[in-house]
Structures are given as structure tokens and as C-alpha cells.
Amino acid sequence: MTAKLPAWLTDDMPLPTVKKQHHFLAQNIRHLEQLLQHFSQATEQARPQLKHYWPPQIKLLTTLGVVLLLSLNQNPLLLWLILLVELGLLLFLPNFYLRQILRQALISSGVALFLILPSLLLTMPASVVVFSLKTSLILLTLTYYRATSTFSQVVQALKQLHCPNGLIFVIDITLTYLKMLAEFLLGLLQAVSLRTVGPTAHPYRMIGLLFGTLYLKTRDYALALYAAMEARGFIGDYPATPHTTKKRRGHRYLFLRGR
């Protein structure tokens, strides 16, 4: 006599399907951490040093000039020449900068070409190639400047170019606000993620609450900053870096000593 298995062991029972979890909080926390790394002084100090040094104002003027030249130029030969020069500059960069510039330039170029794709389909093929090359070169130039320049160098370049102190103040305070609000929003998202247990039915319902809290914090920061500036007597004056002049006699002495 053989023993039979119970019916509940032989029946096929489908496994319950688990709903797809939304990683809204984790993704935004990761993006904010990456954003705060750009504002960190420790990150700037840990970056590898560049072999060639350009003054901040020269680098800024060169970047703006190349972007303007690419925007107004229609000669393909000049475009290829600028491309060769930029590729030559990339050869002197460490691997850290090279990977960052190429990755960001390719992503931004792909997004830009995708956005203007409908208008490109209605034009001539030659115009499509020239316009795509110009767009990619402009984004590569801006990405190179962004990756090889710090925020303090940008402010220093604006001061060396005799920009109004009001403009420098607006840029400086905007960057400071971005850092402070990003730190506050990061802590808020981390607190919400720690208090959340299990998947939520509507993960995007908290966006309005987060932005409302962020707006109130922005208002408090603005009032506190205005009071602190009044207390310290800030008049909106940024000191310029003194220019160093070298005489020809010093150049002659260095040349003869090197020989």
C-alpha cells in the first residue's frame, strides 16, 4: 500500500506578484550627493593637478570666444580645426578629467540632438551634419571649462575682467544658496526614507510637501543672510587679485641661469 501525498502538495499555486517598487527617494538622494560633491572643498583639493595652468580670466574669455565663433561660423574647415585643438587639449588631461568630460559631453550632446531632431529632419542633410557638429563642439567646450574650473576660479575671473560687483554677488550667493538648500533637502529626504517602511502606494505624493518645506526654508535663509550681511557691514565689494609684473631683467637672469 503506497501513501498518497496530500492534495495541497500536488496543486500548483501561483506566486503572488510583487508590485514594482519606486526608488524615488534613493535616486534623488544619490543625485543630491553627487551635486554636493561639486561644492565640496575637499573634492576640489582631492582632484588631480593640471599640468598646464591658464589664468582664470584667460580661460573664461577663451571659452566664450570659442562658443561665439562656433555659433557664428559656417565653415566646416574651421569646425574641424577647432575639434582638433580641443582633442589635443584633452590629451594633456589626467584620466579623471578625461572620463568626466567625455561622459558628460556625450550625454548632453545626445539629449540636445534628440530635442532638435524634428527640426533637423526637415532640413538638408549637409545642414544637419554641420549643425550637429557645432552643437557637439559647443557642449564639449563648455564641459571642458566646467570640469577644469572651480567656482572660486569663476568668481576670480569675473573680478579680473572688471565685472560689476552686483553680478559677482548674485552668482556667489546663488551658488551658496544651492549648496545650503541641497544639504537641507538631502537631510529631509534621508529622514523621510528612514521613516518609510515598505513600498508606498503613491510615492510622488510627498513632492508637494517637500517643495513647500524647501520654500519656507529658503525664505528663512534669505532673511538670516540679509541680517548677517547687515551685521558684518558687507558692501558688495570683492577684492581683486593683485597683478604680478616681471621685469625683463628678471627674465634675462633666469634664462642665463638656466643655461
UniProtKB/TrEMBL annotation:
CDD domains: EcfT
Any GO CC annotation of this UniProt entry: plasma membrane
Coiled coil: none
Membrane topology, from the record: Multi-pass membrane protein
Protein name, as recorded: Cobalt transport protein
Primary subcellular site in the record, as a coarse category: membrane
TM stretches of this protein: 77-98, 105-122, 166-189
